[in-house]
Amino acid sequence: MFKLTDPFGTAPTQAPFAQSISRGVPWHNLPVTREYTLGQLLDQTIARCGENDAVVYADRDFRLTWYEFGEEVDRLARGLMSLGVKRGEKIALWATNVPHWVVLMFAAAKIGAILLPLNTNYKEHEMDFALSQSDTENLFIINGYRDCSYVDVIYTLVPELREQPRGELKSAKYPHLKRVMFLGGEKHRGMYSLNEVLALSVETPMDAYYARQAECDVNDVVNMQYTSGTTGFPKGVQLTHRNIANDGFWIGACQNLTCRDRVCIPVPLFHCFRGEVRSDPGDGLN
Q1: What's the rounded Cα separation, in Å, for the pair 142 and 132?
Q2: CA-to-CA distance for 239 and 222, rounded, in angstroms?
Q3: Domain-embedded: residue 106
Q4: Which CATH number goes with the domain that contains 102?
Q5: Within-domain flag for 219
């Protein structure tokens, strides 16, 4: 039986432990835990591998280098701060694998918010449960998926969106919900579009942004995953920066992944798998 003792030098050549095309640092030089927030890990990766590709969507000819990805994360993070998103607030995300999904994940982490990824197959009653049970303050959506119009579902659940000014939402059914945003350029009544949120970034000074990042701690909750609910109502599982960063790092380390490797992610980004692969860029894995 194969015993994992030095994955950077002795990994076997047959599945499931195939040797990576690249080599990492010696096994004995790796710390057991990584005591960094996701934002700090992102900044470290940008400093080391800024010109490398970070995100690639081959189907739409979309790609960002680590430099470009970092700039987009900072713009979105500052835009969210300008809207009033506080540290510890939850940001629910109901979207398929669109490019700014990952940008929002790191933007939320940098300002101390908690990302709440939602299953793209949710129907109206499941979305109702998630919004009620999570007490989320913020919600990002896209048009929809398959035969479900997310926009129509949200207007049904939160009819106040059609009547109240943006930024002043007061929902009778979801009293904690403050803002609904659309993860794209389209405009919908009562919602901020992604372009509008990005444009608001200029209203948050860089010193205020840096101060918010300094408040973040590795033990802060940064992600909340809902269980499938097969044995009862779904339950929100809270994950900290330390949880995700260390899990992601060792998944990559045990596969010898570095900045010369690319990982194709065909699974939905709301899966926990997404958090582990994307959370610790390490040596610039994209």
Answers
A1: 20
A2: 6
A3: yes
A4: 3.40.50.12780
A5: yes
